[in-house]
Amino acid sequence: KLPIENYPEFSKLFLKYFDKKWHGVEATWTRIKIEKPNISMPSLKQTFNLINSNKWVITKKERLRGKYRKGGKRSGGYFSKFNTKYVLPIWTRNKSINSRKDFGHWEIDLVIGKKSYGKRNLLTLTERKTRMMIIAPIKSKSPHVLNATLYKVMKKYRLLIKSITSDNGLEFKALGLFSYRTGIDIYKCNPYASHERGSNENANGLIRREYPKKTDFDTVSDEDIEILMDNINNMPRKIFNFSSAITQYVQELSMVDVNAEMQKIFQKGIDKRAKKTSRRHGYLYIKNFQ
């Protein structure tokens, strides 16, 4: 039996924040944990048990979405435990990120090509402050392939990545694991809110000028993709008084030690993990990035 009476403040806040359409169980639990770290609260698993007991402020039948009703088990599998802890809702993002004052915060997306099995797509990254864009071909929409490609891109271009903001696409469901292994913060946009990563959306629109929907990216060479990326990054931009994204990016890079900053981020990820087997992943990332 769960001691329901032990969590009065948590129960009150959960009832206030929870919305079965827009603010689910995990999001509500995470918000309370972040905003009220000192209150007594159950684990996420215990929270679901409270709901399933039908004796709490939220009941299984009346308030949960259908996906939680059968057998009281949640879907999500292997990635769920990482996403719950390492993927944060966008409203928790720091003001310095939202205002674009801090360098090294990126938005991510996939530009989909011809919809056929095995066809290439384009992984796109946009740095929020400078609007610098990285474009890389990706062989699959698989979350594991995306994580591997993301790290290769980060290493190839020596990127300083403090955080990544993504949408809710299935291809991004392993970003929690990426955060777990690297220490890079991952933020998730609200559903149907592409404007929350507007810089990347606008940049993707520039790609579509050259390669419209249903383009077979297997027929586009890596060299042509690099040329497109250079053209976008060298465009004069009114927001920068007609300077280019690449000019702004180079200026920011001149003021930081990318290797030192990334090692701090990787170390942060290592410090969060307790298991020795997991720690080795972090050291491997640091070694490979140098």
Any idea how many domains? 2
Q: Rg, please?
A: 21 Å
N/C terminus separation: 52 Å
* CATH fold-level name of the largest domain: Nucleotidyltransferase, domain 5
Which homologous superfamily in CATH is the superfamily of the largest domain? Answer: Ribonuclease H-like superfamily/Ribonuclease H
Spatial ordering of strands, largest sheet: 1-6-5-2-3-4
Q: Tell me what the CATH architecture of the largest domain is.
A: 2-Layer Sandwich
Low-confidence segments: 66-75, 275-284
Please report which band the strand proportion falls in: under 5%, 5-15%, 15-25%, 25-35%, 35-45% or over 45%.
5-15%
What structural class do the secondary elements suggest? alpha/beta
Q: Total number of β-strand segments? A: 8
Q: What is the CATH first-level class name of the largest domain?
A: Alpha Beta
Shape by Cα distribution: globular
What does the model show?
The protein is of the alpha/beta class and 290 residues long. The protein folds into two domains: 7-75, no CATH class; 87-289, Nucleotidyltransferase, domain 5. It is 45% helix and 12% strand. Helix 8 packs across helix 12. The protein is globular, with a radius of gyration of 21 Å. The termini are far apart. The model is unreliable at 66-75 and 275-284 (pLDDT under 50).
